[in-house]
What we know:
Layout: H1 2-7, H2 12-22, H3 27-76, H4 81-138
Amino acid sequence: MLAIDRLAPADPDIAAAIAAIAAGATPDRVAALAEDRQAARRARHRIAIGWWLAAAEAAPAMGMIGTLFGLVALFRRMDDPAAIGPAMAVALLATLYGALIANLVAAPLAARLARLSEAEAAGRAQLVAPLRAFAARELPSTRRDVAA
Length: 148
């Protein structure tokens, strides 16, 4: 245990569990710590996923607002045929950009983050049992005295 305690693993969850084991935490406490940290990680992931889902939902509406600005500019310049084209282009491009951002950027990013979060959660869940077992072997009451 002393050798592992000095290694200081790069993974903060494993490092916290090893620190708890080194401090004499029970196997149940170590498992609860690992599960709490996993729940906090999933909550942070849900925030990021939610942000991208909100962006995917809002982008088409923002595109439609840009379209309205373009149409207002178009109708204000109805007497100048040369100004109608650029105003119409703004209107159409705003709609296009909103749809592209929603469907090619934000929604795919949210879906990818959700898949990665699920995969990471599955891997993290597999750490609980080994950490619990390691804590059970390292409890002072279960250690065998080598000198005896």
